[in-house]
Every structure is written in structure tokens, then in C-alpha cells.
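Entry under discussion copied across for reference:
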Amino acid sequence: MNNTAQTDHPILIVDDEAPILLAIETTLQMAGLTHTRTCEDSRQVMEQLNKQPAEVVLLDLNMPHIDGRELLDQISREFPEIPIIIVTGAVDIETAVLCMKSGAFDYVVKPVEEERLLTAVHRALSFRELKRENFALKQHILTDTLEKPEAFVSIITNNKKMLAIFQYIESIAQTSQPVLIRGETGVGKELIAQTLHELSGRSGQFIAVNVAGLDDNVFSDTLFGHVRGAFTGADIDRSGLIEKATAGTLFLDEIGDLSLASQIKLLRLLQEGEYFPLGQDEPKNTDVRIIASTNVDLWKRQKAGKFRKDLNYRLRTHRIYIPPLRERIDDIPLLVDHFLNEAARSLGKKKPTPPVELATLLKTYAFPGNVRELQTLIFDAVSRHKGGILSLEVFKAHIQAHQSREQQAVETDIRLSAEGSRRIHFSEQLPTIKKAVQLLVAEAMDRADGNQSIAAGMLGISQQALSKRLKKIGSKDS
């Protein structure tokens, strides 16, 4: 979204003609860029920058005392991080191009066209903001620490991948640019979005809305609001969620399911920072920060013609991928302990003692519902718990039911692919049945960390049957 970066630094406009200064400043302020400062005397520019650096400098070329080209060299040398936009007459375009080769960011021709000016300024602001974020990210990588670990207390993890994500979140938290959070259902995308908002320092609210299944009219009314008489039943003006999230964050969940008509309106919001309430001809400006999430592949949706290419690129200015629980199984013991405490407190029970085999059992399960599924499973087990050590039966039954469904799906796939290519590929020399069974048993025992009961459940046989097979294998090996 085209907002100024969150900084105390203004946009500095330098020109020796007061009417031009007023015109440019008015254009910027009407577009929502209200933090501006003007300078009519070129001799005062460096002094002003030393007192308070600017976010962007708009610099006239032809001025008395010190001309723009000399100032360009001075500013570039002493403040290389500040983008400079040259403002020049039509006859000076060749000179302006030479200035760009000397370090200017862009140029605008007098008389200044409003759209061209705003485009150049917004590009310069985005460039400055991205440079700031890159520097912050490098600092995080070098220090390998979190500045505000307390902001992440609601996310239970000690996984290295997750800690790296936390560092990235801190480095981009204060940007106004959109963030796209990707990950499977149940990994905690909204928790990440809430953490981003908390770290952003924004004064407004965090507002979340699931946009899946919303048709364009409902989406527009929900986000943009409406004016009285916009449609039948619209008896009063109603503000939308964007207005409620002013100076805050709007979290759009399941963005991949948004209709194409609504995608066009969201794109305008992101690009121009403005929207139209239903029934209103004049746009409203907003400084809300957009965070979106999806559990689908937006590239595939784009190729299928169901997601706009320009919106896809605009949303992913910053990208966060949350790994599924099966890729961070080292977090399972931490999560189990946390959810046991949470469930006991919620149900008014004493926290039960988990069996020593529980973590091992859970690590053998793929958790298609991720952290949310584990939480539900723990709550179910604690709600049934009567006393003593927590029973494994609830967990075993849940996992076995899932494995049964998976087996049925595999058998269906095998039948469907019988006339096509094989799903399982072997080397040229096939293993014998006995050898294949030995390999399968060994793999199950490895995944179960040597626990026969858990391995037997994975193989769909009794523990006694597995024990007999292991003894046979052991006797032959000896």
C-alpha cells in the first residue's frame, strides 16, 4: 500500500519559487503524504538535513546561490540513503538524465503533473523502506537474537526454522507493505499476523476477517461499508472493517478463495491506499496495513485463471511460510505440555501426567490438521481423563482412524492407477516378500524409536505379532 514509512523524517521539497513549493506540498498532502517540509533557499538545505534527515528530497535544478546539481552531489555524498527526485523544466530533461546517472532516483518535469509526481514519490518511499528493512534483516542475521522475545510468547516453539521466522518478522514488522503468510490449515497463521501487528507499533486495531466464500457484494460491504441508500435495506451509513482498522492492521484469511471481482478492489486498495464505500463516488484514503494468508498455492490459482497476477505479486512484498508440525516434531513435547496445562485450566481439572510413550507416539503421526489438531486431541483426552496417568487410548484411536482412512485412500489410488504407471517404483531387482517385510518392520521400529507397541500400530498388527517377527529376524541375523 502506498503509505509513507513509519518514520519521523519528512519529505523535503527544495525550490526557489514559492508558488511551486506550495503546489507540490499541497498535492502531496491531499494524497495523504502530510509530513512535508519546504526550503526556498538552497544554502539552507544541508543544515536542515543535518538537523533532521529527510525520507525523500524533491530537488529543483535551477536555483540561485547553490544549483541543484551541486546539491545533488552534496546530499548523495553525506546522505546516500536518501532518494532524490529532480524537479526540472522541460528544456533540462537531458541534464536531469545526467543527474540520474550521478545518483538521482527519478525526475519530474515542470509544470508538475499530479499523477507523475505521486508515482515518483511513492516509488522513492517504497525504495527507502525496503532498504531500511534489508538493513534490519541483516542485523538480525548477524546478531541471531530477538529484540522483543516477549512478543512471541503465544507461539510455542523452540524449533530453529520457527526462530528464524521470528527474526524475519521483527525485521519487517514496522513496514507498511503487505505481508503474505502461507502454510497449511492449523499452523497458526493468525497468531503470526497478530504478532506482526503487536510489533508494528501501530496505534489502531487488529481486525481479522475470513474472506473465503464471500461474494463480491458481501466482501465490499464488509470491508468498505456503505452509504445510506446504496441498496435496498441500507437505511443508514455503515463503516466497513477498513475504517475500523484505521492506523492498524487488517488480516485477510484464506485470500486464495477471494473472487476475481473482489481481487480488483483489493488491488486498488493496496496500490493507491483508497477504496469506495458502496454507493459513494468519492474514494476514501486509508493507512491500514494488509496482512493476508492462504493455505493454497497462489501460483497454481493464478495459472488456472482464478487469481490475478498483479495482485499475487503485490501481496507477496514480504512472505512468511509457516512449516507444518510434521516438519518440526521437536516442538511436540513443548506443545503437549502447554496444551495439557491449557486444557486442565479450561476444564477445571488437575493437570494429568502424560505417559512417557506419548511424545514418541505423536511423533509418528503426520498431523494433517497441524497444531490445531494436536490441541483438539489433547483437550479430548483431558476431558475423558479420570485420574492417574493420562491414557494413550484416545491418541491411539485417533491415529488408527486416520491411518485407516489413509489406507483406504491408498487402495483407491492403486486401483485407479492400475492401468497407468505404478505408484511404487522398485529397482530392477525386486526384493523378496520376506525381505520387504523385514525392511517395513525396520522402518516402523525406527520411526517409533524402538517402541514395539507404537510400531505395531503403524503396521496394523498386534504387538505380539510384531514381537514374533522381530525375534525371527533377530535369530536369522545371529
Remarks:
- The chain has a mean pLDDT of 86.
- DSSP finds 19 helices and 14 strands in the chain.
